[in-house]
């Protein structure tokens, strides 16, 4: 059952009582997502925090020239949400698309607020998740403004080795802010060393 995966994830952060586990099972909705199916599209308001039980997703935007820019990938035991749209309830500029057939658990904002009101532990858990996401976003911004493309690629290899059999080079290039051709050049250069 998908909820057991999420409960185990939460318990790695803080132990849960039996009634708290039941609350998790009740608050989150399980969804089966097909490959290439969207759970968020530009112009929609992000209504859920999404926990990936199985599968792989990407979050991206499309610029005015039609070019896609990948902002995030998410695999098992990761979260993917347009947090700005979720909290502001304003239309998103982002897309979240399944790259593989997937199973997710989703939490609506009103259910999240109930969790927070009724149990301090969930407030702590989600605060921790938000802090980790903020640290990751800051690290990514710093890499983009202060690292070469080759350094970004090497860092990506080191941090996310499990993505390479699941995400195309085109997707990785977009995430790194380079063309697929330039990424190919970087990869060939690295192999020679």
TrEMBL record:
The keyword RNA-binding is assigned to this record: no
Keywords recorded for this protein, A-Z: Kinase, Transferase
Listed GO MF terms: kinase activity
Pfam families in the cross-refs: cNMP_binding (PF00027)
Keyword presence, Kinase: yes
InterPro entries documented for this protein: cNMP-bd_dom, cNMP-bd_dom_sf, RmlC-like_jellyroll
Domain of life: Bacteria
Domain Cyclic nucleotide-binding, chain residue ranges per copy: 31-119
Official protein name in the record: cAMP-binding domain of CRP or a regulatory subunit of cAMP-dependent protein kinases
Source species of the chain: Cnuella takakiae
